[in-house]
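A common beginner's mistake is to predict each chain separately and then try to dock the pieces by hand. The better habit, illustrated here, is to supply every component at once so that their relative placement is modeled jointly.
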Amino acid sequence: MAAVLLETKKLTFVYPGQPESSRPALKEIDLEVCAGEYIALMGANGSGKSTLLKQFNALLRPTGGAVFVDGLSTADDHCIPQIRSLCGMIFQNPDNQIVGTTVEEDVAFGLENRAVPPPEIRRRVAAALELLGIAHRAGFPPHQLSGGEKQRVALAGLLALRPRCLLLDEPTAMLDPAGQAVLLEAVQRLNREQGITVIQATHYPEEAALAGRVLLLENGLLLKEGPPNDILSDLPLLRSLGLGSTAAGELAYLLRRDGMPLPGGILHNRELAVQLCLYAQKN
Amino acid sequence: MLICTKKLSYTYMPGTSFKVEALREIDLSIDRGSFTVLLGPSGSGKSTLLQLLGGLLRPTEGAIFIDGRRLQYRRRELRELRRRVGLVFQEPERQFFCETLYDEIAFAPRNFALPPGTVKERVEQALQQVGLDDPALLQRSPFQLSAGQQRLAAIAAVLAMQPRLLLLDEPTAGLDQAGQRKLFALLQQLNRRPGFTVVVVTHRLDRVASLADYYLVLDRGGLLMEGSPGEIFSRAEELHRCGLSLPPVMLLMHELIAAGLPFSPVLYSIEEARREINAWRKKVARP
Amino acid sequence: MNHSVTLGRYLPGSSFLHRLSPRIKLLVLLLFLVILFMLQTFAGLGLLLILLLVAVATVRIPFRYLVGGLRPIVYIVIFTAVLYFFFTKGGVVLLRLGTLTIEQEGVSAGLFMIARLVGLVLMSLLLTLTTSPLDLAQGMEYFMRPLGRLGFPAGEIAVIMSIALRFIPTIAEESQRLLRAQQARGADFEGGFFSRARKFAPLMVPLFIGAFRRADELALAMEARGYRVGAARTRMHEEKIRAADWAVLLLAGAALAAVVLTGL
Ligand SMILES: Nc1ncnc2c1ncn2[C@@H]1O[C@H](COP(=O)(O)OP(=O)(O)OP(=O)(O)O)[C@@H](O)[C@H]1O
Ligand SMILES: Nc1ncnc2c1ncn2[C@@H]1O[C@H](COP(=O)(O)OP(=O)(O)OP(=O)(O)O)[C@@H](O)[C@H]1O
Ligand SMILES: [Mg+2]
Ligand SMILES: [Mg+2]
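With all components supplied together, the output reads:
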């Protein structure tokens, strides 16, 4: 069993300035994430996904309970630089993340802060820009880019850093299908080959289906967790939370309700095709 | 015909080393009452086109015609245009400027000098339409909402204008499934009103595919394709080449067909797929 | 339409000035500031302005981009002119408007002041236009480092300065954004100067709130991405002081010497 990398203990969080009586954004969350896991974080709008991700980067710190990253408490000021170099995050809105005055400078920013030698920085920056298909914009001011291009810049800045843990807040929201595929593949590869831990907030069941474990948040509570095949085929639950499953998952669920004998846990198109072929053969 | 463009071009920062020809000689038309979807890879010029149509940018070359009249960018015309056209920005945060959510939604109705009672009604209606009617949020700063809540707020702020032409830039990015379902049900309902036109920019075709009646596809600033859903999606190869893909249901049906099952590849919603498979099931079950 | 380089904005590029070392640029700026305030004659100021305009030309950005950004300066110039023209007395009376007079000394002092102001603006424009704020902050930090040993918070001040340097362009961007956002919801900003000014007034509060929020977000983002004040960093493009840098510094020093010696 791999070591625990991220851990929360009765984590509660209330945004500063919110009335005492208001519902906390996170409530008594107990969670353990082992090194090398790939986790999808799902939940309706406002359920606390972004708030939870920011806890692991110490951008927000618990108002109750505790958060540990590789054994370091985020409440401890001295640990914060180390925590941030372990866990790299991309924000939901790339505008809030970009600090450089050129694309290249922005992607290099995190590396420069970690005092990586310049030739190495140049190499990694070039590779990241190439991977995400924005090399032709390297010298541009980032605020002159399209939405999808900005999101790619933010992602390139994170991937170039190669942190041990990636905190991704809806990283594909503004990407075109090709960009989505490139990113998801890159993240999966990092997870598989280098054991990088990934926590990805997402509204897209297709993306959650790629993870090893899915967490469901509701109103700041960790409602349920489990492998995607279990969680994403529980459509009554998902719907009651304002969520859904993949196209194949939804269709399989509806067909089963119409009386078709299909096994549970179908999420991918291929799986549904196989099951329908089996059905045709049996009849 | 509602809007058409003639050789419409837009260049950012002309004359500098950051010159970008975001749109090049676009000829297109969008019919009154249509539900048009604007597709294209990142950086292809979709947001630029939407801002031109909303009168927020002025073409560097070419012209826009509205109801057959060439837009001259006179003050009166612009005022008229901006009243009829609602544009939801790609980044909702870039759209906010008020201190509370309520003021934000109330901005347009107040700006049109409606009586306070009507303003309140419009705000409540708009928030309810998008499903953001939690009273706890009304007095909060729009910048302190979650990303999805911000998206809903941005849409509500535009709905409160009661526009006749709605331009939405990636309206589903960041919305949960229920929010998306609700939004598209609303768009469909609005679009049924005579003359109400919707233009949506999106990278996700799952929900929009069953509503859209017209597609425009941009690629690197040029208009690559335009036409009915059938016409566009029969050119899957070309779409794929510029980084786009088919609606998820179509991909699913393609997979089923590839496995030798006898289904139609041209389906746009899960419901249709369900009907098709159930019909097939009756056929195979009989012998 | 809205293409203008606002004061304080950095425009990435590869011109000669872009490639000069930020530390050298800061030193040269300092030397030229001294020169600017030592110059006593119109001839001297004229020479300096010509030199600065030549430098601006080497940055190679279209003239109209500059004009848009310099508009606020016009108001300051007008204000200065009025102040000096009417309130500095002496010499021949050039114009009489009722009880007010414009006299020769006022005009020459006013013009001199305006020329100085323009010189000052051009210098800071040249620096910010060609130096990324991050480089600038590092340059400042470098010079303040000796003070740091005496317990002076050099790093913090450099960061504050770099964020402050960005603040003017942030305000400019924020006002663009607000304008767009309000226009998109039916607000009308067309029309003459006065009707526009009246409509802009209510924008001031959201403008400043917005700009402060942006600055806050920027600081937060820098922190989240591992920026720590005073911590050792490297640069992607190593900053080396090359022969050209030394040459420019030398020339600036020579210019200062010339001014001192000739009394221009
Ligand atoms: N800065 C803030 N101040 C006060 N409350 C906030 C702030 N940011 C978020 N909230 C509230 O905290 C709750 C959780 O927000 P969070 O952003 O974590 O949601 P989320 O799950 O990421 O939602 P989304 O899917 O919309 O991004 C929401 O109810 C939101 O309104
Ligand atoms: N304000 C700006 N200044 C300069 N160039 C810009 C600006 N906004 C966009 N561009 C450039 O114009 C091109 C088209 O941008 P646009 O935002 O229209 O793309 P898009 O199709 O909406 O892309 P996305 O799907 O990523 O949002 C891009 O290459 C972008 O870099
Ligand atoms: Mg979020
Ligand atoms: Mg866009």
